[in-house]
Amino acid sequence: MRLCGRGHPGIRATHAKTLEFTADAEIGPGATCVVAVGSRPLSDPRPFAGPVRLELTAGGHSVVVHAIGNPLWVPGGPAIVRRSDVRLPDTIATDADLAAADLPRDLVAALTDPATTVSLTISAALAARAGLVLLWAPASHDRLTVEAAAATLVVSEDGGTDRLLAARDIRTGRADAVGAVLDGGGRVLVVSTDDVPGWSVVEHLGRADTMVEVTGLPGSLAVAAAAASRAPVVTVPGRGDAGRALRSAPADHRLVIRTPAATLDKLARAVEQHRGGAGILVARAPYERPVRLGPTVNLGGSDLWCCIEPGEGSAGLGPVEVRLVEALLADGVPTRTAARAVAELAGMARRDAYAAVLDLAGRRSRPAGPGS
Question: Which single residue of 178, 290, 334, 360 could bond 223 by disulfide (Cβ 3.0 to 4.6 Å)?
Fold first, then answer.
């Protein structure tokens, strides 16, 4: 696909995070990301998914930008290329390795001439890393064809999806081929209409070499779908208290909570206390690319959806509390006394602490099953 525009004396190209082809004929001094005005498509405009190569050409000068296509782009308006991963209807690509401020200055000089023709050619590119896209089809029919065109392998997870894909002449493959495709750096599209997508590829969701995207789902379900677990989900409404939620939610469930980015360190400490080494996935609007929380993850100051994977705790207790209760019970301490100690240590209601202690006491008293 190719977009074409022209230069303008007001083009400055000093924006450090974006560059833009605008359909407007005139721009003001604040349009520091604009690199072309009067933009129009020279071929059938369509959004892209997956890795893309964008070649910007003007006045005999050119530069290549590598990015990830945005299937949610709406042709006819602006075409913005972003360094960030924020996908909006005006955004043609994200995760770009260049912005307006990074363009060669001789190219920028050419962009200031109204007689200069400026073009942006967009084509699919080879992936730098494997991609796994989970698409819930009922909310994403307009995206399905774009994602399927970019996929190495398409996997259907139910009969409704089979019929939907067949109606669009989209060929599907087997879920047991997913591992080999991802090993080769390919892109896999997993589609569901009946349930949250991803149950057929859950063993691949935790791969460090694979970028996971989720589309067609609200934030709370998108971040849960990307977790390497299909345990039941408990969602905390509003901005919940992480410590309280971790104490009350079953440790063998996924826990989804919304929290400000500034409190992530506090959340991580609470998870370590209550769920040991459980993984935490985080995602910001528009909730399409959850990432595993780690020391290099920086999501800015926005609110985040977080999915805490099942951990080592039990009945709302973390590993520390579990070990304490087990030691007290082994020494013959009454369950009510152990519950009071746990309530004080973990800040739990005594009723909840007592239920947790009874649950652990019951587990200790059960006979081991065959092979245990």
Answer: 290
Could you count the other beta carbons within 10 Å of the beta carbon of residue 334?
A: 11
- Residues 46, 85: one domain? yes
- Portion of the chain with pLDDT greater than 90, in percent: 53
Q: Are strands 210-215 and 130-136 parallel, antiparallel or unpaired?
A: parallel
DSSP letter string, 215-271: ESS-HHHHHHHTSS----EEE--SS--HHHHHHHS-TTSEEEEEEEGGGHHHHHHHH
We report the CATH number of the domain holding residue 162 as 3.40.1010
Q: Verify that 97 and 15 share a domain, yes or no.
A: yes
What are the φ and ψ backbone dihedral angles of 176, each rounded to 5 degrees? -75, -5
Largest CA distance in the chain: 89
- Residue of 305 and 369 predicted with greater confidence: 305
Task: Give the C-alpha separation, 321 to 348, whole Å.
Answer: 11
Count up the domains in the chain and report the number: 3
Backbone angles phi, psi at 356, to 5 degrees: -65, -40
Indicate which CATH number applies to the domain containing 96: 2.60.120.630
- Residue 115 and residue 158 in one domain: no
Domain, as residue range, for 356: 319-365
Say whether pTM exceeds 0.70: yes
Whether 152 is in a domain gets the answer: yes
* pLDDT at residue 300 in the model: 63
Please check whether residue 36 is in contact with residue 21, taking contact to mean a CB–CB distance below 8 angstroms: yes
CA-to-CA dists, residue 346 to 299, 326, 337, angstroms: 29, 15, 14
Residue 283 neighbours by CB under 8 Å, 6+ apart: 219, 222, 223, 226, 289, 290, 291, 304, 305
DSSP-derived 3-state class of residue 113: coil
- Omega within 30 of 0 (cis) for the link into 286: yes
Q: What is the rounded distance in angstroms from the CA atom of residue 315 to the CA atom of residue 318?
A: 9
Q: What pLDDT sits at residue 368?
A: 38
* Integer Cα distance of 360 and 147 in angstroms: 47
Q: How confident is the model at residue 16 (pLDDT cuts 50, 70, 90)?
A: very high
